[in-house]
Design brief:
2 copies of one chain form a homodimer. By secondary structure, chain A is α/β, with parallel strands linked by helices. Chain A is about 35% helix and about 15% strand. Chain A is built from 13 helices and 13 strands. Chain A has helices at about 20-30, 45-50, 60-65, 90-100, 115-130, 155-175, 195-200, 225-240, 275-285, 295-300, 310-325, 355, 375-385, and strands at about 5-10, 35-40, 55, 105-110, 135-140, 185-190, 215, 240-245, 290-295, 330-340, 345-350, 395, 400. In chain A, the strands form 4 sheets. Chain A has a 5-stranded mixed β-sheet with strand order 3-2-1-4-5, sandwiched between helices. In chain A, strands 7-8-6-9 form a 4-stranded parallel β-sheet, sandwiched between helices. A two-stranded antiparallel sheet of chain A has the order 10-11. In chain A, α1 (about 20-30) runs parallel beside α11 (about 310-325). The longest helix of chain A has 22 residues, at about 155-175. The first copy, chain A, is elongated. Chain A starts with a strand and ends in a 20-residue tail after the last strand. Chains A and B meet through α6, α9, β9, α10 and β13 of A and α6, α9, β9, α10 and β13 of B.
Chain lengths: ~425, ~425
């Protein structure tokens, strides 16, 4: 293939390390100037492509690009914007091709989760149909760890490290105060459909009695009676009880527990916040003093406590994406392949997008203990390698020194606008 | 004074670095074995003294003691237990002296906030009255930063660093998603009576437009109309709005905003959680998509992101406490003295406990901007030195490697029990 420009976009909820993948895509593309001309990024993800709002990454210094490796969030903007079904809205896909063609783009790198893998696949198919060749490579990313084929999803390991660290620290705090103060502490973590992040909290408990004592997974229907009995027993035995809970905790009828309790001043169900609902329940039924925390975005933005393994994998999939594209591999995704647990060894493999798109990897039932309140050794064995190593960002003025790119726009070439 | 044993206890809400003070007290006492015999710690703070439940710190290895420097929480247990008024419950104080006498304790080190400074002072007075000499030295600690005389309170700098770091990181996340997702993010921090922690969030905004955009202090009565106008203007100007709010935010009538909004399923006011109340308000009145986080104990336990300055000061006050005691200085507290802002230089001075006990240092009004929604340069100048430097704990298995002491009990010598 002749020298072509490339397009890169970030998609969906960002992570602490998605920019490490961006860094790798840009740096690797720059190493291949003979094959890849300009690397353009979409402002606010795929919306940037649809509206021809492209960013010229060549305007960023090597130093700024390198700093992406330690900067959380999405440097070019990301979007929760799912392209509609191909049959229903072919114009969207044709518009993408039109913009790519106008800017001589021959490579499409899409950095996201399951939805974006699907989009990436569709663009590759359309490009074949329309006779405008684009090599489409998906770069995996999601804190939810639900991408199939790949052993883990880049972005997850850092959330896992944050959650395990934070609940351990809170556990030390509560343990020292429990006699006269808080007995029950509840930390709510993200992951509406799968309990990977909740499971990661469990890593903090390395010996019997250590926090967290109870985990509440979205995969296990919430049983109020069993839960209260478990909390009471834990407080009696250890003096306190630390709980990690998924925001997506549901009761047996499939209702989110977060929506069953609280009403705001207007009588509307309060969205978000299963932790305060459980705290109220504990107080009401067991009388224990409680505290609760909702980590929310703090967990997926916590670049300061990122997993070195996760940063390296995020960089590796970005680099591999460019290399695969240069090999002409189309409609594929670099995947993490686990070669051994102890010592942990991994390599980069290749997944076909047709095997990735719209497939959600669930947490195996045997990763959750029989009583449903903790993780198993098997789960621990899977998770532990993913949080290994620290990769602290540089600090300036006592705070992490993150980069803001210049994000210089590329002059538009099309006469037409496109409504999104 | 002849060789005497010493007693050390932790009091009130723990911090990420109170154990650094404990480490210093133990290490410094060990350097003076000619003057200080055994160093006993109170299990669960002053309760341990009242109930004669003492811990023999000499049973801990030098390595274990050194590890206290990087371990959050209270290693011997802390307590929210305020001794009653001297006149009302003289027996409590007499019991302390009785226990101290039984164990040949001549030094009393009390590590806490304003309440414990008061207790420390009372014990020193009683000891004089009862003719049993005990040198009483208070070791300052509180994440609330409300101790007088000392320039800052050990424990605060680390919370400040955590809050500034976390809200900056969340700001990077929200900025990249705002176009199609969350527009308003609210992070709730501790500090019911004073806005020091909220102010620390403000450090993250180094230039115009950077997060956080709005701070809500307990010192400034919450004005719903002004708040909503400020949020709307910020979203229009920057595309998103990041808010730091104190749990103690009050309206003009002095009601906690956290208690004005949510009711649980039983109709009871939901305790804690001003962030979800504000989020509901923003959604209801401005229609923006929101997310919120409540950091709660995570912030004061976050030893992994402790301020090096804070760790050093916490150690220094512990060391100075023992040295002051050996000089026979009674009813005093080592205090941080700021010698210059730029470069930041500090030393240890001595405060008289009568000047410390029950005095609360408020945040000066000129640390808050005229509109009440941010910090001033003067505040920044005060705060910035306190978060300087990193002091990462060692990691094992991908998580901070914190110590649990053996906490070997000392054999009781008294026949009498004491009900607390």
């Amino acid at each position: 293939m002749a020298r072509k420009n490339a397009f890169y976009a970030q998609s969906g909820g960002v992570t602490a390390v998605i920019n490490a993948s961006a860094c790798a895509v840009i740096e690797t593309a720059r190493e291949h100037r003979d094959r890849i001309g300009k690397l353009y990024a979409g402002r606010d993800g795929i919306i940037g492509a649809l509206t021809e709002d492209l960013i010229d990454t060549s305007k960023e210094s090597a130093r700024a690009v390198a700093a992406l490796r330690h900067t959380p969030g999405g440097a070019f903007g990301s979007a929760r914007y799912k392209l509609r079904k191909f049959e229903e809205h072919r114009a969207q896909y044709e518009r993408l091709i039109e913009v790519f063609q106008a800017h001589d783009i021959g490579y499409f790198f899409y950095n996201g989760g399951g939805d974006s893998a699907d989009t990436c696949l569709k663009v590759s198919r359309l490009s074949a149909q329309m006779g405008y060749p684009i090599v489409c490579v998906h770069v995996p990313k999601t804190m939810d760890n639900d991408l199939p084929v790949t052993d883990c999803s880049p972005g997850f390991g850092s959330v896992a490290k944050y959650c395990a660290t934070s609940i351990r620290e809170a556990g030390y705090d509560v343990a020292s105060m429990a006699r006269t103060s808080t007995r029950v502490f509840i930390m709510e973590v993200m992951g509406r459909h799968a309990g990977w992040t909740t499971a990661a909290c469990g890593l903090a408990a390395e010996s019997e009695g250590e926090a967290p004592h109870v985990l509440l997974f979205p995969e296990i229907a919430f049983d109020q009676t069993k839960f209260l009995a478990k909390v009471e027993q834990t407080v009696k035995q250890h003096g306190y009880c630390v709980i990690g809970v998924s925001e997506g905790l549901q009761d047996a009828a499939g209702r989110f527990v977060s929506e069953t309790g609280l009403r705001d001043a207007f009588g509307h169900a309060q969205l978000g916040g299963v932790a305060p609902v459980l705290a109220s329940l504990v107080k009401e039924r067991l009388g224990y003093k409680y505290h609760w925390a909702v980590a929310d975005y703090l967990q997926r933005a916590a670049r300061h406590i990122a997993s070195k393994t996760d940063v390296e994998q995020s960089y590796a999939v970005g680099k591999a994406a460019v290399e695969l594209a240069l090999q002409g591999r189309n409609a594929v995704m670099p995947a993490i392949v686990r070669k051994s647990d102890k010592p942990y060894r991994w390599s980069i493999g290749v997944a076909e997008l047709k095997d990735v798109a719209n497939v959600e990897k669930k947490m195996p039932r045997d990763y959750i203990s029989a009583d449903g309140f903790h993780i198993t050794d098997r789960c621990r064995q899977y998770l532990l390698p993913l949080i290994q190593g620290e990769d602290f960002p540089p600090f300036r003025n006592g705070m992490p020194d993150y980069i803001r790119l210049k994000n210089v726009p590329v002059a538009k070439k099309l006469e037409t606008a496109f409504a999104i």
